[in-house]
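Quarterly update, task 2.4: zinc ion-bound model.
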Amino acid sequence: MRSPRLTIELPSWVDGLVDWQRRYPRPEDRMALVIAVGHEQIRRATGGPFAAAVFERDSGVLVAVGVNLAVPSHNCVLHAEVVALMMAGAQLHSHSLGAEGMPQHELVSSCEPCAMCLGAVFWSGAASLVTGATKGDAEAVGYNEGPVFPESYAHLERKGMTVVREIMREEARALFAAYQAAGGEIY
Ligand SMILES: [Zn+2]
């Protein structure tokens, strides 16, 4: 017996769906992409109903996309936000999205992050966080968001992160209903 090796890969449909060339200037443009990725994730049954993406905050250049891969990858930490941050780091060859000389980055998530992902956002160096569905929306369908408190967000904001919540909330929340209608497992 020896330690396993692991490779983290997005589902093969992602590059066919995502337009990497266009700019995504407004929060709604960014969230619409994230929601479209979430719907395709459900349609293809490649994981949980969560999606996220990293953008250059000011230019709207798309840097990376993430979807929830926890169940298919046997990996409890592969939530959409964490996958997007990992892919962004690999794309930018940097452990930090806030490194010296780099444009500022924004993480856009279809849902307010769980406790782990909120921690990951904090450590990522992202300048801003944009979310769609709320923690309550996720919990209402049976997801557990863990210990996330108003103080958690207050801490991020005190440290200089901009947080914008409930962008296209209804459309983002509809991912949960679509997932349930498709018979997806809530875990
Ligand atoms: Zn999470």
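Highlight for this quarter: The first strand starts at residue 51 and ends at 56.
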